[in-house]
Structure formats: structure tokens, C-alpha cells
Amino acid sequence: MQLSGLGYFGLRTRRVDQWRTFAENVLGLSAQTTEDGLRLRADDRSWRIALHEADTEEFGYVGWEVPGPAELAAAAAELAAAGVEVTHADDQLLRDRDVLDLVHVADPNGVRVEIFYGARTAVTPFVSPTGASFVTGEQGLGHVVFSVDNYAATLRFYTELLGFRLSDFCDLGRKRIAFLHTNPRHHSLAFAGLVIEPERKPRKDVEPGELFHFMLEVDDLDTVGHAYDRCLDGAAPVALTLGRHSNDKMLSFYAITPSGFEIEYGHGAITVADPWTATRVDGTSLWGHRRPSKPAPAVPPAAAAPEGAKA
């Protein structure tokens, strides 16, 4: 199976209005109202990110693109032969996704994976509210990163069944992050899971299949800087400060979205070309990407100006 790249994803949210403001004013995406929420554009596609009005904040689905009908039929047949339950889209779902055809399956963590072809190209040009220009095209939309319960099963699913290729790994204590590519983008998918079982099962702060973050890449470093300034000025909380990653060399920062998970907003990542040798990095960043420090506590008046001290 050969996927072309990340085509789209959808989220369920209570905060559609906040997402519109965040998407347009912070990220520079354009928003269009739909019957159940919003669709966000980043390029000439009719949409890339969907926000569905709901009573929860959660990841809904991810769409991986294939070149055409023959490749989709082959992908569905390969998955079915491997014992994966494959569901073919009905007409309503095709209209909702604005594609010619798709099938969907569940990955080992319950993430809904849609494989599609024939996404609609808009006849009107994409115009960013902030002047941003996103790196998409042959590299797809960007990347998504998940928490997983069974690291080994997830790695087999995406590499052996969906045809992703390994870019590299990063070990963080008992956890390992796998970075996978399916086109020149260094990674369109990454996931983190336990590779060393603890003596006692830890409390799960993040459920399997939960989105850690998604990434959007822009074509100019100043676009990143301006977005960073907007966040520092209060448009959105900064989750990680400006920094450069050790593997894909992306220069980026992370902000907290209205749904509570994070977005990486960056520029300048390297690309890969197969055959590619997967290696392991010691840490995720060369520099930066720090959690913002808490403001210093106010100095008590007595400490600031002891009795008898001159002003």
C-alpha cells in the first residue's frame, strides 16, 4: 500500500466559535461555516480540518490519501485480507468528506483511519487572514501525533499494513516515539507508547488514541515569529517556547488549542528520500521547546520596602 500523505482530519468540540478565532487570528487558516461546525482551509483544497459541534473535546478521524480508485481498491483488499474490518463509505459520508470514495478502519488504539481519493480542489484561491502560506502539496497537510496503548501492534499496523516507512525514533524514559513518513515530509505520523513495562501500571493521563498535537508548516520563518508574538500577546497560551527539533530540524513553537491539546507551528523541516535509514535521537529538541516558566510571585510590600527604608 502506498499512501500519498495526510489529507485531512476532524475534531469534535464544544468550542467552535473559539476555534474560528484561533484558526483565523493565530494560525492564519480560513474558516467556513458548515451545518455542524466549521471547515478550515490551508491551501487549494476545499478543506483540511473539520470542527464538528459536540458536547466533548476529542479527535474524530484522520484521512490518508491515495492516488486514485485502483489504489483505494487495492488498499481495501489488503486490509481485509489481513483480517481488518473495512467499512465502505455511503453517499452521505462521501458528501460530508467531499471526496469521490473512501473506506475506513480502526487502528489498534481505536483511532478512526479513513483512506480516500478524489478530494475537491476549490476554484477560489486560499487567502490567509494573516498572510500565511502553508507547506502542503506533495508533503500533505502536516503531521499528527498520538498516544498509543500497544506500541508494537501500532507499529506493525502502520508499517506492515498501511505502508508507512520509518524515519527515526526517540526514547523518553520507558516511552518510545516512532516517527513515520509516507512522502518527502520527514513524518506525517508519530506515536508514543511504553516499550518498557513498569512494575505497576501507571495512571493514564492520556488515553490511547488521544491526540497529543498536530503540526502545520509555513513557508516563511517570519510567519512563525508573528504567530508566536500573537500568542505571547495573549491570543493563545504557549505550550512550548520557540525551539528546533533534533530529528526533522523544524523550528517551531507549540500553542494550546481551544480543545486543550497542542498545535506545533513551524518552518524549515528537512525532507526525506527513500531508501532512508531510521536512527534514534536522544531527545526531541536541539534547543528550546521549553515549558513557559511561571511568573515570579509578587514581592510582599514588607519585603519590598522594609519599615524605615527610604524610597
From TrEMBL:
Q: Which UniProt keywords apply?
A: Aromatic hydrocarbons catabolism, Dioxygenase, Iron, Metal-binding, Oxidoreductase
What SUPFAM superfamilies is this protein classified in? Glyoxalase/Bleomycin resistance protein/Dihydroxybiphenyl dioxygenase
InterPro entries noted in UniProt: Glyas_Bleomycin-R_OHBP_Dase, Glyas_Fos-R_dOase_dom, Glyoxalase_1_CS, GlyoxalaseI/FosfomycinResist, VOC_core, Xdiol_ring_cleave_dOase_1/2
A Pfam family annotated for this UniProt entry = Glyoxalase
Instruction: Please give the name of this protein.
Output: VOC family protein
Family assignment from sequence similarity: Belongs to the extradiol ring-cleavage dioxygenase family.
Q: Does the keyword Iron apply?
A: yes
Entries under PROSITE patterns matching the protein: EXTRADIOL_DIOXYGENAS (PS00082), GLYOXALASE_I_1 (PS00934), VOC (PS51819)
Give all residue intervals belonging to the VOC domain: 5-118, 140-268
Region called Disordered, residue ranges: 287-311
**Gene3D superfamilies cross-referenced by the UniProt entry:** 2,3-Dihydroxybiphenyl 1,2-Dioxygenase, domain 1
Query: Which domain of life, per UniProt?
Result: Bacteria
Q: Which cofactor does it need?
A: Fe(2+)
Q: Where is the composition biased (Low complexity)?
A: 301-311
